[in-house]
Specification:
Helices cover 32% and strands 24% of the residues. The protein has helices at 4-17, 91-103, 163-176, 196-204, 215-223, 248-277, and strands at 25-29, 41-47, 65-71, 74-80, 108-117, 127-135, 180-187, 209-211, 227-237. By secondary structure, the protein is an alpha/beta fold. Strands 5-8-7-6-9 form a five-stranded mixed beta barrel. The relative contact order is 0.21. The structure holds hypoxanthine. Residues 114-116, 193-194, 210-212, 235-236, 238, 246, 251 line the site of hypoxanthine (HPA).
Length: 279
């Protein structure tokens, strides 16, 4: 079995052979937010099943393909669906697509996810810029021998979520009249939703949002020096906040409802980030 660097390289080469486009920006589209990839022009779609070593998503609402195409003038590689630790994948497998992105020449990633809202200032459907995360998944994609070709043994995480990109997102949101909150994302293993007591604990340690993704991908991205912008859609208020049970159907419905707002924000942000990374 070859190492992950070689595997990521092989996957990147296969993808690049299928398209003349050379994306500098990678998108990871979370639950209910994958539709954006369908709107890309000059699109090449590569099912994850055709990419060597690529993990296959099993979650409902995740299409499982990579779409390389153009959002206006900006070339992007968009993951329609991601894999999660709760599906049984290791943190390294969860981070693998981000490593493939880096080997494809991508310099910036925009990650989106569905999250539960802990901050009482949020409501269902709110968009939240992730300022920082608290990794409570009990694992890390960098566990094991370090491969210096990806990055250093002990990567800095003080500026994991690029300050300049957050400023760009805030500016574009204001122009579009979109309310964009900012908060700290707590990443949990799942797949059960949290208990009300866990949500109370997360609030006390400083979390505004809770979800089951993103942290491992961000850690791998920063390890390789990729810049990160991450936006959550509050698909539901977290457990115990409202007097009602949580359901995956609710998560998907809210994703569907904010889809167009979310897409317009993404479309506005992309050219400005592209400008920074030469895309
Ligand atoms: N908790 C964890 N993950 C989630 C939630 C939640 O309430 N909503 C969407 N993803």
């Amino acid at each position: 079995m070859s190492d992950q660097f070689t595997q990521a390289d092989a996957a990147a080469q296969l993808i690049l052979k299928r398209t003349p486009l050379r994306p500098r920006i990678g998108l990871v589209l979370g639950s209910g937010l994958g539709a954006f990839a369908d709107s890309l022009g000059d699109a090449t779609r590569v099912p994850y099943s055709e990419i060597p070593s690529f993990p296959q998503s099993t979650a409902i609402g995740h299409a499982g393909r990579l779409v390389i195409g153009k959002a206006g003038e900006v070339t992007v590689a968009a993951m329609q669906g991601r894999v999660h630790l709760y599906e049984g994948y290791s943190a390294q497998q969860v981070a693998f697509p981000i490593r493939v992105f880096a080997r494809m020449g991508i310099k910036a990633v925009i990650l989106t996810n569905a999250a539960g809202g802990i901050n009482l200032g949020y409501s269902q459907g709110a968009l939240v810029l992730i300022r920082d995360h608290i990794n409570l998944q009990g694992t890390n994609p960098l566990v094991g021998p370090n491969d210096d070709r990806f990055g250093v043994r002990f990567p800095d995480m003080t500026r994991a979520y690029c300050k300049e990109y957050r400023q760009v997102a805030r500016e574009e949101a204001i122009k579009l009249g979109i309310t964009l909150h900012e908060g700290v994302y707590a990443a949990l293993l799942g797949p059960s939703y949290e208990t009300p007591a866990e949500i109370e604990y997360l609030r006390r340690i400083g979390a505004d949002l809770v979800g089951m993704s993103t942290a491992a991908e961000v850690i791998a991205a920063r390890h390789m020096g990729l810049n990160v912008l991450a936006i959550s859609c509050v698909t539901n208020m977290a457990a115990g906040i409202l007097d009602q049970p949580l359901s995956h159907a609710e998560v998907m419905e809210t994703g569907e409802r904010v889809k167009s707002t979310f897409e317009s924000l993404l479309k506005a942000v992309l050219p400005r980030i592209a400008h920074e990374v030469g895309g």
